[in-house]
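Q: what sequence does this backbone want?
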């Protein structure tokens, strides 16, 4: 008979995730040991292994969880609006709201993906590609001319994420600018630009 989980099992597992994310992001993955994570959680090292088999399991869990959360929030935002401009605004808001509360996880996504095994890294990147595809579809809906070149459309989507992905380095949820206000500012910049965007001639050439 399987041993029942403790009532605080999920709370403890989440504590390990949160402390590990902060330590990996500030110290670096290689410089953080399981013992360090355990100490920051106020628990024995052996107890951490009760939740995660190895240090890279924690990193994988953090990155898959973060991108999956972004993808779920993005898809929920897209379901809530019909007009392309409103859809993009909701999409940006969904991202900014999550970025402001997950700076450590997002920093790991940008800097620690290479610490995963090839297979696990590809799983995370596959989720990222799904996000880029959603953004690409949004931008093409705003400017159908982008549909004439998959290269230009993808470049626009990557640039879109280039604008969003570094928000965590400076934006603070308790600052003078509210998250949704900033998201609307970003959305306005994107909307004003993408609707007048032309497709460069070279973009028609195969990659």
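A:
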């Amino acid at each position: 008979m399987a041993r029942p989980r403790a009532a605080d099992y999920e709370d403890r597992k989440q504590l390990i995730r949160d402390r590990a994310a902060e330590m990996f992001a500030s110290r670096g993955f290689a410089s953080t040991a399981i013992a360090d994570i355990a100490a920051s959680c106020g628990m024995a090292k052996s107890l951490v292994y009760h939740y995660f088999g190895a240090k890279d399991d924690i990193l994988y869990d953090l990155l898959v969880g973060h991108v999956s959360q972004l993808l779920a929030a993005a898809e929920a935002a897209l379901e809530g609006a019909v007009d392309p401009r409103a859809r993009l605004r909701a999409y940006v808001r969904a991202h900014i709201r999550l970025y402001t509360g997950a700076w450590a996880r997002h920093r790991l996504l940008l800097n620690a993906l290479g610490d995963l095994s090839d297979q696990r890294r590809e799983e995370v990147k596959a989720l990222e590609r799904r996000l880029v595809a959603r953004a690409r579809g949004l931008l093409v809906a705003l400017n159908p001319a982008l549909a004439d070149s998959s290269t230009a459309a993808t470049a626009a989507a990557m640039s879109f994420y280039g604008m969003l992905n570094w928000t965590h380095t400076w934006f603070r949820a308790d600052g003078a600018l509210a998250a949704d206000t900033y998201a609307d500012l970003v959305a306005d910049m994107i909307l004003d630009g993408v609707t007048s965007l032309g497709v460069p001639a070279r973009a028609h050439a195969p990659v």
